[in-house]
Amino acid sequence: MKVRRILLGVALAAVAVPLLVAQAQNPTAPAGSGGLNTGRGRGAAAPAGPAPKLANGHPDFSGVWQGGGPVGDLEQGMPKGEKIPLNAEGTRVMASRQSKDDPEANCLPTGVPRIAPYPWRMLQTPTHVFILFEGNIHSYRQIFVDGRKHPEDPDPTWYGHSVGHYEGNTLVVDTVGFNDRFWFDFRGHPHSEKLHTLERYTRTDMGSLVVETTITDPVYYSKPFTIKFTARLRPGEELMEYICQENEQDVDHIKGPAGTP
To answer: Is this prediction's pTM over 0.70?
Structure first.
């Protein structure tokens, strides 16, 4: 198990590894995973059947999931034939980025909507929804579903300030108050502190969770755009201990412009 964790950390940090090699390791990697093999998925297949509901009628998102957001390339979540609407400044910033500077490769949070290729868990209470991440620093998101509004001037943070509500079988999450430090993907798609995301979580069946995110950022993009990824239930799995900070030695070996592995 320790060896598998070490190998996984190297695979995530070495973003210059050719995509062909990564896909050969895991030919069934979901879109947005960058083809990376997490070493997981040895348990039971995702169960079939209708999506469950809580006693109050809201959709039940509980469980350990994998995927659901961009890892290698944000554009993988766009409809076929559509491109990310970067403006001139966004294109300039993206072209200047070096892979070694990716915050995720330096053990920092992935922000929204990026997800590291590790499992994550959703927990629901009457007032909050929590998302617990296995990867990086065991970070978490808290989504307020108690009817509160965004603060007028939120302190910029990695995951922003999130408020949510239910629309039928969908959890709608509105988030503002981001810092400008995380990247959307390995390629280095940028964002500013004016970033605003609107996520829609829909459990379409027992084993699938569709995450659709509309991104608005007038600093680096010419118009809002929407991406969509699907997370898969990992039945019988638990989040594993994963420490990224101590003795990190991989980022010094990452060379070249930002790009998918």
So the answer is: yes
